[in-house]
Amino acid sequence: MWKHRIGYLAVVVPAVTVYIVADRREPLVLLCLLILMPLLSLILQRTAMRGISMSCRIQGSCRMGQQIAVALDLKRKNRLPIGTVRVRLVFENVLYGEQEENEVWLQPGEEREMTFVHLYEAADCGNVRTHAAAAEYRDLLGLAAFKRTVDISRETLVYPPEIRLNMELLKRPETKNFGELYNQKKGQDISEVSGLREYVPGDSMNSIHWKLSGKLDELIVREFGQPSNYNTLILYEMMKRNQEEEIPNSCNNAVLALTVSLSMSMLELNLEHNVGRVMNKDIQIVPVNSMDTYEQMQMNLLCKPIVEEVNSVDTVYSFLRGNLRNEYTKMIYITPCYEESTARQLSRELDLTVLQIVQGRQMDYTASAGYAVISIDVDTYQETMNSVTI
């Protein structure tokens, strides 16, 4: 607006100079017109503003990477000429605690009802709040601006990218009350010997195969079939920082995408499960056994802010300190980073699979120390992640 004012002064000052030097009627008439034009523009602007109302329409949901369409509807009661309208739209991602401001310029025409659409790209998952407190109306000459209060406050749920996972279960879990299957690798009968291995401290003396141990001159233990009616927990972890390491939003987006995709895969297999997250050393868990509870779980994922700094060790110890280890026998742990020693301790309590989000590494599977780790590249998971074995 200061450019318009400088331009206006650049015209007025020479007009005043010409009038003083020439002392004639024509420069005086021009000077009077230059003074009256802004006054007339301001009067028209104030009068036109009284008959204008603004409302907003925003879509309720979209996928990450798509655009949020913000429709601004203007209604006019008169056809008086009006200048430009500026609206400062603030997009606040509640999940990440980040804000972005966009300036939207509207040029109303002569129509009584007009719609202006502004597109905002949803780069991250989360609950995006769109709001604006005021609109700035400028006169036709761009010399003055008037602010009016507007009521623009809407929310849009930005869901993670959709990944169709073909999930293979090494141990098929079922509901706790109705599970009848047994570990597919260790037999279907708890009285049946399904395998032999070397003795480790803590094994029952009744499980030792004494005859074979005497032949091999080392203790050999018999393994029996184990029930696999597991109670399963998908534990996801999001963080902005882990010690000195900054965790980018892309890694947290991938955590959310894998969490909802795994949950949907288990739901399609008719497997009840739970989805949980540690917040302030307290694990918040949502049971998932239907599409309604699945939608509720997604709401929890997208609407609760990320803690500034999360320590994966605290996450594991929060789980171990509570009674949760007595309630769950299988855990899928999705995280940008994990600590090996605590993961080993966790694997002693239940069947553990770690899905680690990494950068610049291809998908990799390793199994050691009693648990499995699947490394997933954050840059390519949407294209390459189509199956997973847990």
In short:
This protein is α/β, with parallel strands linked by helices. The protein has helices spanning 2-22, 25-49, 210-216, 249-268, 291-303, 312-321, 324-327, 340-347, 381-384, and strands at residues 52-58, 61-63, 67-76, 85-93, 98-106, 113-121, 126-138, 145-159, 166-168, 193-198, 220-224, 232-236, 241-242, 245-246, 273-279, 282-288, 330-335, 351-358, 364-368, 371-377, 387-389.
Walk me through the structure.
Helices cover 29% and strands 36% of the residues. It is elongated, with a radius of gyration of 33 Å. The chain has helices at residues 2-22, 25-49, 210-216, 249-268, 291-303, 312-321, 324-327, 340-347, 381-384, and strands at residues 52-58, 61-63, 67-76, 85-93, 98-106, 113-121, 126-138, 145-159, 166-168, 193-198, 220-224, 232-236, 241-242, 245-246, 273-279, 282-288, 330-335, 351-358, 364-368, 371-377, 387-389. Mean pLDDT is 81; it is low at 174-191. Strand 4 and strand 5 form a beta hairpin. It has 9 helices and 21 strands. It is an alpha/beta fold and 390 residues long. A 7-stranded mixed β-sheet has the order 16-15-12-17-18-20-19, sandwiched between helices.
Which properties best describe this structure?
390 residues; alpha/beta; seven-stranded mixed sheet; five-stranded mixed sheet; 9 helices
Please state the average pLDDT score: 81
Q: What global shape is seen? A: elongated
For the biggest sheet, the summary is: 7 strands, mixed
Q: What is the SS-derived class?
A: alpha/beta
CA-to-CA gap between the ends? 61 Å
Classify the helix fraction into a percent range.
25-40%
Number of strand elements: 21
Element order: H for helix, E for strand? HHEEEEEEEEEEHEEEEHEEHHHEHEEEHE
